[in-house]
Write a structure and sequence with these properties.
Oligomer: heterodimer
Structural class of chain A: alpha+beta
Number of helices of chain B: 20
Largest interface: A-B, 77 and 65 residues
Strand content of chain A: 25-35%
Shape of chain A: globular
CATH architecture of the largest domain in chain A: Sandwich
Structural class of chain B: alpha+beta
Mean pLDDT of chain B: 80
CATH topology of the largest domain in chain A: Immunoglobulin-like
Radius of gyration of chain B: 36 Å
Distance between the termini of chain A: 66 Å
Strand content of chain B: 25-35%
Order of helices and strands of chain A: EEEEEEEEEEEEEEEEHHEEHHHH
């Protein structure tokens, strides 16, 4: 629990994105449709228009402060409202000042500029109300409780991180390193910007099966295959994330801010149940770097991956439809 | 000075009311019959001295004869006329039209407001103003009102109905209404006034608006083809809302009748068949002046009341603008009970008024809500267009305002839709939405069938579809992502959600303008209007298969409306949803499986339970140390994990600096041992206090943010 040594507003600021436009390399602007952002998911997808050559994005914002921000007896003065764009991967922090829509109103609006070169993947956008309290300038009085996500590559404004899926013929791929795995049906690469699954098209019919939309046994087998694939992927991304932690001397591991953080936050409760995720991270890190306990943890990691992959459900469906098929052939 | 009616017609009516002939008056005045006849036909007027004699002969004062704004009181007094029982012994145990509606002020609002819109005086371009007044009467005010409506004459009829109440619905409702009035000593009047409307014009009996409302059932005499109503059922809601079945009417006419316009008053009572003093009565009764022309001078007709009388009847209008006031006596709102959710189960029985169907404040709220929901479009203007309608609602108690008059503001009740329509009127719509607050417009085709069952299409009407971001502040009307459909009368007819929207679609509101609402220039606007009006059921809540549609067009004509709906939904989806991308590599199923999203947590294994921090208070002490008081909540369990409280300073990135404890004290439910909190088995809540060691602070305390956590184990 967090405590501030000065008076603040209890309730959060609400933030809405009102428009998004891209500046292209030829100097023109493309005003994106409102489908580029989702107010429910609180996400912006800058890849939606399919431009490859954009330079910067201008995101129009509107923020509403909680009641009491303008109270005449408030403890703060020199109120100003800032939109802050942070990227955990590149450590870039951009802020823009918003302007009040009407005197004495609680609505502020403005825009923040995002330079494409400053970001790798996902940046988060928050708004802070800042003022002078007890003679100290620049104190945060209220913030948004849930940041917006700005994804510079995604073409769908959703919050959940989507792992990338690519298909390639491992034998003939221009990615030469894949040739070493020519006899594997799929391979997970955790070193990419976003973990990527490569599906080997040399295995005949695998794409047909994965793309199938039919019903019947075929689709059940597909689901089982996907469950198997997902189990592999989740195991791999967990290890990828836990193996690469930044450690603060004397304070233990630091939660990663990119996709690794998202994966860990999601999976740790299943790996170390019943404790806070930070505490779980410390425990897992201790076991991995310490003398004992790492081997015992593998079962839990496997369990977390299997749960995510919905393997039990997929298996049950396959068995049921196989039984059904057998009955039909008997009669 | 008020201008009364022409002398001739006035005198003729006074003679009729007084039961005198022209010859008798001539005798009394010592004049020839021809002279009287000349006055009545308007060929001459009497000299002032003769006026005095006429006044004396009619039993009134000279002023009345001069101004002629009211009738003399010489004739038969205002009274109740109850229609006698049918000679064939038939009995009507209620008005069938009234059964089509429940006692619901929201339905009443819809029907009455629609009627006012239909009767708007269009020449001056001004909106029709409608005012709803809820008035609760108690004590002396109630007694005075009862006297004004001659309650003592009515009472035997109500008693007769109450006695037979066990057998039929209307009787029970009336019985309950009368009992409520006596037991609680109150009566709720709901008055509906409209101004700048045509008023109840026309003769008392012959075809006309007056007769359509007051004398007839299921007759609709609408002023134009774009009118909302078409069944003539709407007026029945007035009586359905009255628990006493009693409605009084005062109308200011836009076209003079009998040379007058103001204060045409009549009352109508709807009761089931009854027997009073051995006389059978068919059902309805009228409150008015006996018509000397009717057989036995029994039938009550409307009369031109004076100001004092309308005031006593609570029927006084605020100006001489034409329009009608309906006073619903004993208004109740049964439907308001439905809205009660299960959530307030606990409050049942707390308050007696809770289940009250006659709570004027609640009715006020429901009226505002319904008017905003159904008539926001008619109340919206923009560009060169004025709104068609202005509505206000107020509530009074014995003449004192308890809820001040409030004009229903469409931009407060329906902000997104109002914005959409205004943008359409002002011509500021866009093709594609690129900024929140914009309104996108599309035209959507409605293919009109040929009438008379012939195959083929008469023409294609272009309806206007408006889509804008939902402003989210009011969800009472069924939520977001809805299409409201309207036609010429600007009343919301259809509300429907749009299905199959992708997740994360920004909430929106859509408005579909069809028929004359699409604009006068839209092709086949009139035909579309007529077609949709025929497809509207009496509830005015959808367009679809109706008998009229089948008869005038064909049994399959309603499919044209389904096709319109499909077109509308497609257009909406196209505007608000991302186009479905060609499937990405690996197919949809793989993508779904590989999305990081929150799942329900796995069940924690059985074993020692882990306490969590529940509440934290902290202040900066005199020496700059953080002093905390923390509360811990513990899940039910036999064994409780010992916890280490850890104080840290919050930072923007990197690890948090840890602070040492100078002091850690157990307050209750725990003990402190070497910096660790231990809890006796079975504890559910604990409290401890602590102070940090200032020497371990890396920066000045007033510039820090404190984070306190409970950690299991060693607290590393």
């Amino acid at each position: 629990m967090k405590i501030y040594p000065y008076k603040r507003l209890n309730r959060p600021i609400t933030l809405r994105v009102t428009s998004v436009s891209l500046k292209l390399s030829d100097g023109t602007r493309d005003q994106l449709e409102t489908t580029a952002y989702s107010t429910q998911q609180q996400a912006v997808a800058l890849g939606i228009a399919g431009h490859t050559d954009w330079v910067s994005a201008t995101i129009g914002l509107s923020a509403t402060l909680p009641p009491g921000a303008n109270a005449p007896d408030a403890a703060w003065s020199d109120l100003c409202v800032l939109a802050v764009l942070t990227d955990g991967e590149t450590n870039v922090r951009t802020s823009a000042e918003l302007t009040r829509d009407a005197p004495d109103g609680r609505d502020w609006s403005g825009s923040v500029e995002l330079l494409r070169d400053d970001h790798m993947g996902r940046a988060s956008l928050a708004v802070y109300a800042v003022g002078t309290v007890d003679g100290v300038r620049g104190r945060s009085i209220a913030e948004t409780d849930r940041s917006w996500l700005v994804d510079t590559a995604s073409d769908e404004p959703v919050r959940g991180l989507q792992l990338d899926v690519q298909t390639a013929s491992f034998k003939r791929s221009s990615r030469e390193w894949l040739q070493a795995y020519a006899d594997a049906p799929w391979i997970v690469d955790v070193s990419a910007r976003v973990p990527t699954v490569f599906v080997n098209t040399d295995v005949e019919g695998v794409m047909g099966l994965l793309d199938s939309n039919g019903s019947g046994v075929e689709s059940k087998v597909r689901d089982l295959l996907i469950a198997q694939m997902a189990t592999d992927v989740w195991t791999a991304v967990f290890h990828g994330a836990i193996g690469d932690l930044e450690v603060e001397p004397g304070a233990g591991p630091v939660f990663p801010t990119d996709w690794q953080g998202e994966v860990l936050r999601e999976m740790l409760p299943d790996v170390v149940p019943g404790v806070h995720v930070e505490e779980a991270l410390r425990q897992v890190h201790r076991r991995r770097t310490g003398d004992s306990g790492w081997v015992e943890l593998q079962t839990r990691i496997h369990y977390a991956a299997v749960r995510r992959a919905d393997a039990t459900k997929a298996l049950a469906y396959v068995i049921r439809s196989l039984e059904q098929m057998n009955r039909e052939s008997e009669t | 000075m008020e201008t009364g009616e022409e002398f001739g017609p006035w005198l003729a009516r006074q003679l009729k009311l007084a039961g005198k002939t022209q010859a008798e008056l001539a005798d009394e005045l010592n004049l020839t019959r021809a002279a009287v006849s000349a006055w009545i036909t308007g060929r001459s007027t009497p000299r002032p001295t003769v006026m005095m004699d006429i006044a004396k002969a009619l039993g009134t004062d000279v002023g009345t004869v001069h101004t002629r704004t009211t009738d003399t009181q010489a004739g038969l007094p205002v009274t109740w006329y109850h229609r006698p029982g049918y000679h064939d012994g038939g009995r009507d145990l209620g008005n069938a039209a009234a059964f089509a509606f429940d006692a619901d002020v929201q339905v009443l609002a819809r029907e009455t407001c629609q009627n006012s819109l239909d009767e708007r005086l269009t020449e001056n371009g001004r909106p029709v103003r409608v005012r709803y007044t809820l008035h609760e009467l108690t004590g002396e005010a109630l007694d005075a009102f009862r006297e004004a409506i001659l309650w003592n004459d009515l009472f035997p009829h109500y008693s007769a109905v109450s006695e037979a109440a066990g057998n039929q619905k209307v009787g029970r409702v009336v019985d309950a209404g009368v009992r409520d009035m006596y037991e609680k000593g109150r009566l709720v009047l709901l008055r509906v006034d409209d101004y700048n409307a045509s008023g109840l014009i026309g003769d008392d009996y012959a075809d006309g608006k007056f007769a359509a409302v007051v004398r007839r059932q299921l007759e609709s005499l609408k002023s134009g083809p774009g009118a909302g109503g078409s069944y003539g059922l709407g007026k029945a809601t007035l009586w359905a809302t009255s628990a006493l079945g009693l409605v009084l009417i005062n109308s200011t006419l836009s076209v003079p009748h009998e040379g007058r316009t103001e204060r045409r008053v009549i009352g109508r009572l709807e009761l089931p068949w009854r027997e009073v003093d051995g006389e059978p009565y068919a059902g309805p009764a009228w409150f008015g002046r006996p018509d000397p022309d009717s057989p036995g001078a029994m039938v009550a007709r409307s009369w031109w009341a004076d100001e004092e009388t309308v005031a006593r009847l609570h029927l006084n209008r605020e100006s001489d603008e034409p329009g009608t006031s309906f006073l619903i006596v004993g208004a109740h709102d049964v439907a308001s009970l439905e809205g009660k959710s299960d959530a307030d189960d606990e409050s049942v029985g707390d308050e007696e008024g809770d289940e009250d169907t006659r709570d004027i404040r609640k009715m006020h709220g429901r009226l505002v809500e319904a008017l905003g929901r159904d008539f926001w479009a008619a109340m919206t203007g923009g560009g060169s267009r004025l709104p068609l309608l202005e509505v206000s609602v107020r509530a009074l108690q014995n003449g004192k305002e308890v809820v001040p008059e409030k004009q229903v503001d469409p931009s407060a009740e329906q902000p997104s839709r109002t914005r959409a329509l205004r943008a359409h009127y002002e011509g500021t719509t866009v093709d594609r939405l690129t900024e929140s607050g914009q309104v996108a417009a599309r035209s959507v085709p409605l293919k009109l069938p040929l009438s008379g069952g012939a195959h083929g299409t008469l023409g294609t009407h272009q309806a206007v579809l408006l889509v804008t971001e939902a402003e989210g502040d009011r969800d009472a009307d069924g939520g977001k992502n809805q299409v409201h459909s309207l036609r010429g009368n600007r009343m919301t007819v259809k509300r429907a959600g749009v299905q199959r929207l992708p997740i994360g679609t920004n909430p929106f509101q859509a408005v579909l303008l069809v028929g004359e609402a699409a604009g006068e220039t839209a092709p086949f606007a009139k035909e579309a209007e007529e077609f949709l009006r025929a497809a509207e059921p009496p509830e005015h809540d959808r367009w679809g298969q109706t008998e009229e549609l089948t008869l005038r067009w064909s049994p399959s004509a309603y499919r044209r409306i389904n096709a319109l709906t499909a077109e509308v939904n497609n257009a909406v989806r196209e505007l608000v949803a991302r186009p479905k991308r060609s499937s990405r590599e690996g197919g949809e199923a793989v993508r779904k499986a590989l999305t990081v999203r929150t799942r329900p947590k796995a069940k924690a294994p059985a074993g020692p339970v882990v306490p969590v921090l529940d509440k934290l208070d902290a202040t900066v002490g005199d020496d700059g140390e953080w002093r905390i008081t923390a509360e811990v909540s513990i899940p039910r369990g036999d064994e409780i994990v010992p916890m280490v409280p850890v104080a840290q300073l919050d930072v923007r990135s990197g690890g948090r600096p840890k602070l040492d404890w100078a002091e850690l004290v157990a307050v209750e439910g725990c003990e402190v041992e070497d910096g660790t909190l231990r809890f006796p088995p079975g504890t559910r809540r604990a409290k401890f206090q602590g102070a940090t060691d200032v020497t371990s602070h890396p920066v000045r305390t007033t510039l820090t943010r404190l984070v306190v956590e409970l950690r299991a184990g060693k607290g590393e």
